[in-house]
Design brief:
Chain lengths: ~600, ~600
């Protein structure tokens, strides 16, 4: 691609990428009203051979026409107009589409952000103009160049087309600001570059549990294409999420059982996020938990690259894993409205109950896939997981006591069917790295929706109020951030463990480390005596600095006597030592791992 | 009024009241599109003789017609349509009106709340349909009967008309749900009942500082009407607010000087809220501060009722005062967008700089008003203020030590130009009752925007960061609500005084007192040792229980030595005793006061 094309050409490539995605997602008609600012999109539409263009002068009439067309055709229909009040004329039809669940793709051209709110002509605030009457709103900003930007636009197109056809069909709105010039000054070599083959199915509504199909796509065709996509070496990655809400699944098996059955039939490994609910409980040789460690080894990472990944739930906690997954064609299973695809690699999104889908896939694999081809592949993953577990154990046996030992001890100590809440920032990442798996069930909880360090103490108190005994692991900054939560910690059945390492130590692992005034502006330690702080709240406290003390504290705090409540175990961590241990461990893995 | 009229009649009265207000506010045209749900408003419009009705089939066309009419006529023009997508057709014209600052009154009929979101026909979510493109949005709910409800609707009409013509003219939206039947089944005696005479001016934009006039009303007519309204016995009530922002006023005098000059010329008392900035600083015989005490005396309250009140700023802290002001014709001065009128008594709203308006009024009074007529009136207020101050002093001299003595001591002790922050719930009300006035300036601060008990400690820390030494007075519940704020209290120049009376004692004065489980569900005391709590934060603490101890603590805490920071003075209050003192005091005033 010519990176040095002019603004007009850049606008055109940008618009073309979006339309590629929309067409792949099933859009076949674009109804437009004349205007100037919408020119790049119209130029791009001209280059889409499978797109029918219909000009209608009045935007209101255009919108009702598109509504009728989409209603009868069962495909999403695009609407295009210029900036200003033009798109407001769509509003009545948008409301009708919202209520009648008709897939409309609203493409409004806009002036660039630097002109909005500064009195420029025909410039209004178009963002979220239709309020709650669209299923999604996007404003991707002015055109950018580069492969990643164009990939994002293609994926955005496929996504909104899919959303418009999803389990709650309806209008979606993309607001598209363009900078001038709007027409390429020279010949522009921009070409249509549709997403991978299966994209045309990505808008598919597949409610497998009820076998219901809408928008009239043929399940056999879809299945054949999916099977083709999954013919190479693949893996399942299960992220944070609750996949078998009690009483809501129609599948005959629980999620974990269905998943292990599926991985067995497909002969693929399952990478289990700490918040997937899969690390603790019934074992499987397919369960992989130590990827964050062994994928840091470049040779291992390269050797294990799959041809496809089936992702279930939200993106995983491990950034190592997420980065490694980039550019691998992805099937995403999500029963709700989530569109978890930060890498923009989803080719097929399955909007279905995860248990039902896994069982369906297991049956499919039994019938049509040749699992023997991939037995080696699966065995290779199992071997490296075991090797990594052994290397980790060997390394920790001789390393100074730190969070790794603490978590290992804790996991060995907690009764079956207990819960563990890991706060954000370091604790959940530490758990991810060191937990491994165990056969006794243990519920893992974390606030990964927005991943803040706020409200962690109060959340722990709320979790405990469920009746399940839940141990907390929090960093000192999280703990001090939610001081009002201390009022709620009086009735704990299990300890709240505070890893006191003197401030936000996650920054020690990030590029901010070493910036001027680093301690005061990023690490921000809070100088408070934890024991003295807790005393007036009547919360028991003990401070420990090594493994023996921690084990002793744990024995006392887990299952406190009838008349006592569990308290806070403050673990004083030598953060610098801990940091050295982590980096040494990663070097150790790189030096010792063989594949 | 017949309170037993049917639903249709009730709808009609409701709609009529709204239109009365709109007509009084200057609306002369109503453009409507046919529909059923809007029937009550159309029936009401037929009874307004000064209203021209124009039917236009297409709502979009109707909206642009109204836009043109309002643009040329310079008066607000009403738009009326039925429920469903009908009002969405207005959107393009609404956007144009928003940008061009044209006064449109958008009246959308709606289904009642019980039908919204439950699949009823022609029912969509009409609330805030135009997002940020209207100046105000109101949804007053289905029609109610009774004088207070109708007064509210009349005032709402006058208000939105005024807002549409305000210092930022533009569209306003009132969504009006109606229950069936929409037509009165019998003869309905509902009549037009316009607001008091001056209402027709209430939409007036009066930027006195710049002598600017828009929407072409004659300032002489307006002044004559205002003067007529102020011919009886009046008073000024100055509520919470900052009326002379530094560098923003165009008036030659500061607000307090301008106000005292105005009260002098008008010969009227000024009731000064604790947050008005008028209680402490240059004295005036017109300054009244003890109204919350003496207006509890029924005979006094009746004898002092004025014919009009000029209100400046937000509604006063004193509920006694606010209730006493109900039904008194009110002139409201507000330089901003506030429309502080919980009693719905505002007849004229002056959207002007408060200092400039006071000076203008002082000149006007000098020229055209006869202040001698009201000299007795003013002297009567001064006398009762002085009498109440003496009665209060006499009473407190023999009463057990409580918050009243504490505040009196504190105000006598604080250096001039210091600040005092009173938290919500009890402290600000105690200050209101006991402060009186003093000639040395003292800045009073409080969070009365939403009047929460949240964030009070953090607010105090922020106030102190301004460089002004500011003492805080907080209740124990506020103090314990914002525990995270303790991290910010390390560098105080003045003490933070915590009135620890064991929970939310304001409920002891409210009807909730005595309900089952009152202590646990309303008073909600927090059982924390304040000293132990503060120790780990490095905040000094002392606990006092009487006047001598408090004075000693105050001497130490105000102006701490260079290397020390001021700390927390915890005042342990016997809440039951305090409550008895308050009730006894009010009885004492009622028994002793003479008028």
């Amino acid at each position: 691609m010519d990176e040095h094309c002019d603004q007009g050409c850049q606008n055109l490539r940008w618009a073309l990428a979006l339309l590629d995605g929309l067409v792949a997602g099933g859009m076949r008609h674009l109804v437009f009203s004349p205007g100037s600012r919408s020119t790049p999109l119209l130029l791009a539409a001209q280059r889409q051979t499978s797109l029918t263009l219909t000009p209608i002068l009045d935007e209101r009439s255009a919108a009702f026409f598109a509504l009728g067309l989409a209603r009868a055709a069962g495909h999403p229909v695009g609407l295009l107009c210029t900036s200003g009040s033009a798109l407001a004329h769509w509003f009545p039809a948008v409301i009708e589409a919202y209520e009648s669940e008709i897939p409309l793709i609203l493409l409004s051209a806009d002036r660039p952000p630097e002109l909005r709110g500064w009195g420029a002509n025909q410039t209004i605030d178009q963002t979220r103009l239709f309020g709650g009457f669209v299923r999604e709103f996007h404003d991707p900003g002015p055109a950018e160049s580069g492969a990643a930007a164009l990939k994002m636009m293609r994926t955005l197109g496929a996504r909104v087309a899919a959303v418009s056809l999803g389990n709650w069909p309806g209008p979606v709105h993309i607001n598209l600001p363009f900078r001038e010039p709007l027409v390429p000054t020279a010949e522009c070599s921009a070409e249509s570059n549709p997403p991978l083959s299966l994209n045309r199915n990505s808008g598919h509504k597949t409610t497998l549990a009820s076998s219901e199909q809408s928008w009239g796509e043929d399940i056999d065709v879809w299945t054949r294409d999916l099977t083709a996509m999954m013919s190479g070496r693949g893996l399942i990655c299960c992220g944070p999420g609750t996949f078998s809400p009690v009483g809501e699944s129609l599948a005959p098996l629980g999620f974990a059982e269905a998943l292990w059955k599926c991985s067995e039939q497909l002969a693929v490994p399952v990478l289990c996020d700490p918040l997937s609910g899969l690390r603790f409980g019934a074992d499987s040789t397919h369960r992989i938990t130590r990827y964050d460690s062994f994928l840091r080894h470049p040779a291992t990472a390269a050797a294990l690259k799959p041809d496809w990944v089936l992702r279930i739930g939200r993106a995983p906690v491990s950034k190592t894993l997420l980065n490694w997954l980039a550019d691998i064609p992805t099937i995403l299973v999500d029963p709700g409205q989530g569109w978890s695809d930060p890498n923009k690699d989803v080719r097929v999104r399955v909007n279905a109950d995860a248990s039902s889908f896994c069982l369906w896939l297991a049956t499919l694999a039994q019938d049509v896939m040749d699992k023997q081809t991939h037995a080696d592949w699966s065995a290779q993953w199992t071997a490296i997981e075991q090797q990594c577990a052994q290397l980790t154990a060997n390394y920790l046996a001789q390393a100074p006591w730190c969070e790794a030992h603490l978590l290992t001890t804790l996991l060995a100590h907690l009764p079956a069917d207990d819960g563990l809440f890991c706060a954000n920032s370091m604790p959940i990442r530490q758990l991810d790295t060191w937990s491994g798996g165990r056969s006794a069930p243990l519920g893992i909880f974390g606030n990964r929706g927005a991943s803040g360090i706020d409200g962690q103490t109060s959340t722990l108190a709320g979790l405990n109020a469920s009746g399940i005994p839940i141990t907390g692991v929090l960093g000192d900054l999280s703990f001090f951030h939610d001081l009002s939560g201390l009022l709620l910690l009086r009735q704990l059945q299990r300890p709240c463990i505070v890893l006191n390492n003197g401030g936000g130590r996650i920054f020690d692992y990030l590029p901010q480390r070493g910036l001027p005034d680093f301690e005061r502006l990023w690490r921000t330690p809070i100088d408070l005596d934890c024991g003295a702080l807790l005393h007036p709240f009547g919360i028991a406290h003990c401070a420990v600095t090594n493994g023996d003390e921690f084990q002793a504290a744990l024995r006392e705090c887990v299952n406190p006597s009838e008349h006592q409540s569990s308290g806070v175990i403050e673990v004083r961590i030598d953060a610098e030592l801990s940091r050295r241990v982590h980096y040494e461990f990663w070097q150790h893995i790189q030096a010792s791992q063989s594949i």
